Amino acid sequence: MERVPILKIGDILLVSIQLDMSDQTAVALQEDLAQRIVDTGCHGVIIDITALDIVDSFVGRMLSTIASISKVLDAETVVVGMRPAVAITLVELGLSLNGIRTALNVERGMELIAAAHADELDYQLDDEPDAETATP
Amino acid sequence: MALSTEESGRLVALLSGQDERVTTRWTEIVTSSLRGRLSQAELRRQVQDLHRAIVASGEQGTIDLSADSAAELRAALSELSRGRARQGFSATETTISVFALKDVVAELVQEAGGADALKDYVAFSKLVDEMGLFTFESFVRTRESLIADQAEQLLELSTPVVKLWEGVVAVPLVGTLDSARAQVVMERLLQTLVDTGSPYAIIDITGVPAVDTQVAQHILKTVVAARLMGADCIISGIRPQIAQTIVALGIEFGDIATKASLADALRHVLRLNGVETARRQPRRDI
């Protein structure tokens, strides 16, 4: 069985889906991702679906599940690189991928996660005013 | 409906025996119906082409417009009607060029006389009728393809996607928005978002004369699709009457930002981007 690779870039995990998803690969991806989030302590997950020609209700549900799992583990999920044709099909089907954040490309997705994380950092910094100045 | 071999033979004999006279008379009749909108020489050339095609297919035995042997005749007829359709002649003016042959044949048959004159004339005129119908059909086909081409060109012309600012694109919609156009607009906009990597799109509906539930539905679909791709849409250019119609119809735009003018929409996006617009002291000429 093929596995979807999970890459770590800084504080973000990047998942690029390049193959047709089956039940098994989806479940394996969810398990791997949850494990990696806990191991690395990352706060952002980017799922790149540029290579996907078809996003059906199955893939939609898988994305929702991954987003929920990440949320529980305190990581923000952003789906990036959806093709115009895929977006149009999803709208025509009435699937709106509720609760999933989207961005145009990986770069924008990283900005989005950085912005969301910065808000959180600000919040934490308020509690410990000299946390940032302490590090060289 | 095909002519028998003997009838074809007699027709060919009639037409080719005095071809100079036939084409001259034919051209005269057509010229009078077109009222000088086509030069005599051009008409003469067309008539000669037709005449040659009829004689050629008649010499191969029977004249049958649907048979393979009449391919040249069919080509000549469709050539004629295509040309006329493009030059803006009416359907009557086009088919009359073919029906004029009847008058010519009537004169020839009358002169030749003979026992079978009436029978022959009826058979010939049936053939001419068939040719006329064929002409008419290719005329209509040409016109329809012209209209289809123009509609497509209009579709291409009327949906530009313009870049307003770094990361901000706008679609100024002009004219009524039907399903076909909405689809084109949606595809164009989404493709531009991907190509330029712009996270903001402004849909300006100043040029849309009326917004009903269907148009609103199309716009909403576009906005939702853009959101799925990770871009935000703002609707601008809502005129007072349209605002009233939208409320009266109970259309809900939900959490989609709507602005009265394109300028407002652009300012809104710039503010979201952290760009501040400030008024400077205007320059004075001394």
UniProtKB/TrEMBL annotation, chain A:
PROSITE patterns: STAS (PS50801)
Residue intervals of the STAS domain: 2-113
The organism's place on the tree of life at top rank: Bacteria
InterPro entries noted in UniProt: Bact_StressResp_Reg, STAS_dom, STAS_dom_sf
PANTHER family on file: RSBT ANTAGONIST PROTEIN RSBS, RSBT ANTAGONIST PROTEIN RSBS-RELATED
Protein name: Anti-anti-sigma factor
Organism: Micromonospora arida
TrEMBL record, chain B:
Domain STAS: 158-269
Origin superkingdom: Bacteria
Family matches, as InterPro entries: Bact_StressResp_Reg, RsbRD_N_dom, STAS_dom, STAS_dom_sf
Annotated CDD domains: STAS_RsbR_RsbS_like (cd07041)
Signal sequence coordinates: none
Protein keywords: Phosphoprotein
Pfam family, one: RsbRD_N
Name of the featured protein: Anti-anti-sigma factor
